[in-house]
């Protein structure tokens, strides 16, 4: 009997199960809370040199590699059934099903169509790590010609949220198989409506960040090749605010401008004044981008317009810069309008803040990536983007960091950008994403200082 047990144990010596069984035979050893156990490695190898992080990383890579075909299947399913922001009903049900079958505790209907999956383990560690991915698609007609292209007319996963969801699910599937060794609690957030910058707020309102100590996120990036990732210290994306300016003049005959107040001409002066003032009065080291993307006014070619409405977006990276922008804009609009006899209204609406990546968590992602792959496959991004991302909303409740997952095809000269109807991803990136995220989560749970 004993001989059989010894044989069985020996046969499985490289598996996690072996370690659990060994511990049941060796009660004097400390519990295998994390497999970071030098005494155990001594038993196996007669020396202390075996790196337990490496051991766990190998486990994560093995599990992820085995899951790869299923993850590609999941990604293609989500890709061919895209749903617009706030309407992610089928995607959410699908996500909930995968999480349940992986043994996670699942809550649906969080943040309207969001889903939460929790990996609950017995642990003394009170910290809770959240991993956030998003699920919504865009109102774009897909033109990739892929066999698994969108089956929904005019709706496409052109921002890679199908990949994010798959990476979130893959990470949950991997970590659920090593929950005891992980030694920490993980909450997976599958949020809706990122493209309209509202889903994160909805999730937070429904308690998604309750008790969360730190949060990690991921976004695909076509200009980084698949197999590599990018991390960024500090600002990753910009604050994005909405701007509406109404210029109210006085109508008149097109041939008699002196008897009217031309709202179209004044609007053009306002736009010019704003753009010039950015370059002369804003700190050039603290960027501000103001884009007027829509302008409406006037009724006929020979009638002077009495009203013009300008709609725009205002991007900035620094909270102090952002705070002074509403007054700064209003003062410029006011001075131009007063000069030419018009009245005005400025409506400034604050959208999502800038994503400010936490230093320690960015370090965690960088070291996880470098250990999992190699340092030349981890880019430290020198510049932020002036795009926006509602991941920033979570950062009001806990420190966090979002990394960029390379999805570009190395052999292609042109990888179409995000939001392009021909945007494609090299699916090998999914495993890179899952391993990086799962290993970063493991490292977080190991290091109570993070
Ligand atoms: Zn997008
Ligand atoms: Zn996106």
The strand count comes to: 16
Detail the poorly predicted runs: 12-16, 20-50
| Oligomerization category of the chains in this entry | single chain
Report the order of strands and helices.
HHHHHEEEHHEHEEEEEHEEEHEEHEHEH
Structural class from helices and strands?
A: alpha/beta
Shape-level CATH architecture of the largest domain:
3-Layer(aba) Sandwich
Alpha-carbon distance between the two ends: 46 Å
Q: How helical, in percent, are the residues?
A: 25-40%
Average residue-wise pLDDT: 91
According to CATH, the fold-level topology of the largest domain is Aminopeptidase
Protein architecture, described:
This protein is an alpha/beta fold. It folds into three domains: 1-25, no CATH class; 54-236 and 355-446, Aminopeptidase (3-Layer(aba) Sandwich), CATH 3.40.630.10; 239-352, Alpha-Beta Plaits (2-Layer Sandwich), CATH 3.30.70. Helix content is 39%, strand content 22%. It contains 13 helices and 16 strands. The protein has helices spanning 2-11, 16-25, 38-45, 52-80, 89-101, 161-176, 179-182, 199-205, 263-281, 319-340, 359-372, 391-394, 429-446, and strands at residues 105-110, 114-119, 128-134, 185-191, 214-225, 229-231, 234-235, 239-248, 252-253, 288-297, 303-304, 307-316, 343-352, 356-357, 378-380, 400-408. The strands form four sheets. Strands 1-2-4-3-5-16-6-15 form an eight-stranded mixed beta sheet, sandwiched between helices. Strands 10-12-8-13 form a four-stranded antiparallel beta sheet, covered by helices on one side. The chain has a two-stranded antiparallel ribbon with strand order 7-14. Strand 1 and strand 2 form a beta hairpin. Helix 4 packs across helix 6, helix 6 packs across helix 13 (429-446) and helix 9 (263-281) packs antiparallel against helix 10. The chain is elongated, with a radius of gyration of 27 Å. The two termini are 46 Å apart. One zinc ion binds at residues 159, 161, 194, 219. Residues 159, 195, 418-419 line the site of one zinc ion.
